[in-house]
């Protein structure tokens, strides 16, 4: 197995509150890795320190053998980590296609000057970006909405669009923060198929999700956070039976039943 991401003793505090404490975990290339835990356990904070939105107080992340920069989201994307957000963050007034194109610009080279002077290179790059954005919309199943203003898309389609936009940055690791939130059972089923396809296409997935059935059916391994600490990490079938995990979710010791 090849290590893709290692979190080493990661800690994050907000004033007196310890949101993450000494969290270490390893994600291997090609895995779908689940991060679960009760509300407020620190899952989104983990995403935020990983992707550079917050600076961790302790520890570091090593990606492909290199330490990741902290507090620099665009550099993290350039290194090959893309994320979606729990509260969808799309450009509401732009079309679906334009949103995906915005996600790709981190990989283009012409820059603002090239676009302004409409250099041959910039024009060609823009054409390829548009083509790629269409492909990605098709990949996530919403190409029919390419020219629709994104805020008028259904919630489920906006979540798919967020995934397309993240994929546009050509990540090796795709971090999804509650991608099934607000989806009905059919949409969740389709999302599962999409994530399985993403894995088959060689992209490693880190998934925060409350839908336990989805997590257990999709993830190769799962880590459980509780009050900012990792309390378990294993294959889903083992994690499900872990006493500490059951107590964390039920808010008390395990009862015989
Ligand atoms: N910017 C912040 N400032 C202060 N406290 C924060 C901040 N972000 C998170 N927290 C606190 O850190 C703790 C962990 O929050 P976090 O959002 O990471 O949990 P979570 O596991 O993602 O929860 P949920 O499942 O509800 O989204 C919570 O107690 C939260 O209130």
UniProtKB/TrEMBL annotation:
Listed name of the protein: ABC transporter ATP-binding protein
Keyword Nuclease: no
Record keyword Membrane present: yes
Organism annotation: Denitromonas halophila
Residues annotated as domain ABC transporter: 5-252
InterPro entries per record: AAA+_ATPase, ABC_AA/LPS_Transport, ABC_transporter-like_ATP-bd, ABC_transporter-like_CS, BCA_ABC_TP_C, P-loop_NTPase
Gene3D superfamilies given in the database record: P-loop containing nucleotide triphosphate hydrolases
Coiled coil: none
């Amino acid at each position: 197995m090849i290590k893709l991401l290692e979190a080493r003793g990661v800690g994050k505090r907000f004033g007196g509150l310890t949101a993450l404490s000494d969290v270490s975990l390893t994600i291997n290339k090609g895995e779908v890795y689940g991060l679960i835990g009760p509300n407020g356990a620190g899952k989104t904070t983990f995403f935020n320190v990983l992707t550079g939105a917050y600076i961790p107080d302790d520890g570091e992340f090593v990606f492909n053998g290199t330490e990741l920069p902290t507090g620099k989201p665009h550099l993290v994307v350039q290194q090959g980590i893309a994320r979606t957000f729990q509260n969808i963050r799309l450009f509401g007034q732009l079309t679906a296609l334009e949103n995906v194109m915005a996600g790709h610009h981190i990989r283009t080279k012409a820059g603002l000057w090239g676009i302004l002077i409409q250099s041959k290179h910039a024009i060609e790059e823009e054409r390829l970006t548009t083509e790629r954005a269409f492909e990605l919309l098709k990949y996530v199943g919403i190409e029919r909405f390419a020219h629709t203003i994104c805020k008028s898309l259904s919630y489920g389609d906006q979540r798919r669009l967020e995934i397309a936009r993240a994929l546009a940055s050509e990540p090796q690791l795709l971090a999804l923060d509650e991608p099934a939130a607000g989806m009905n059972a059919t949409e969740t089923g389709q999302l599962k198929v999409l994530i399985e396809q993403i894995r088959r296409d060689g992209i490693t997935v880190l998934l925060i999700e409350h839908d336990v059935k989805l997590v257990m059916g999709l993830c190769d391994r799962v880590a459980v956070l509780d009050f900012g600490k990792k309390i378990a990490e294993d294959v889903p079938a083992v994690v499900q039976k872990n006493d500490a995990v059951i107590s964390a979710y039920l808010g008390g010791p395990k009862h015989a039943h």
